[in-house]
Amino acid sequence: MPEPDERLYFLLQRAAHQLRTTADRRCLAAAGITTTQLGALLAVHDRPGITQQQLAQTLGLRESAITALVTRLITADLIIRHPHPREHRAVALHLSEHGAATLRAVQPEIDRFNAELRAVLGDTAFTQTTAALNRLTQDDTWPAPGS
C-alpha cells in the first residue's frame, strides 16, 4: 500500500478546490449565491458597518476584487452602503433585508455541509481542524518574518 501523501499545502489546495466547487453548487441552488458572496455576507453580518478595506482584509482579497464584489452584492440587493460615520472617504456596509433572508435560506445548506465534513473527519478531527485553520487565518505572526 502506498504511503499517504503528506504534502499538506498541496492537499489543502486540492481539498479547498473540491470543497469550494461543491459548496458553490449547493449555495447557488439553495440561495442563488456563491461561496465568495456568502463569505462577504457573513462578514457584513458579523461586523455591521464594515468598510470595503476591512472586508478585503477579512476575505483575503484585493480591494479591486472587493469593489466588484460589493457592486454585485448591492446590485443584487444583498447589502447596502451608507456613508461611514467617522471616515469621510469610506462607506459602511450593512446587510439588506434580502441579504439577511438569503443568509437564512443558505443556513441549512451550510449546516448540512459541515455535518458531512464532521462525518468524514470525525468529531475530534473536525474540532481540531477548525481550531488550527482559525489560528492560521487569524494569526498575524505566521509565517514568521523572513520565512
From TrEMBL:
GO biological process: one example: response to stress
Keywords on record: DNA-binding
GO MF terms held by the record: DNA binding; DNA-binding transcription factor activity
Keyword field contains DNA-binding: yes
Record-annotated HTH marR-type domain positions: 5-138
A Pfam family annotated for this UniProt entry: MarR_2
The keyword DNA-binding belongs to this UniProt entry's keyword annotation: yes
InterPro entries in the record: HTH_MarR-typ, MarR/SlyA-like, WH-like_DNA-bd_sf, WH_DNA-bd_sf
Protein name: DNA-binding transcriptional regulator, MarR family
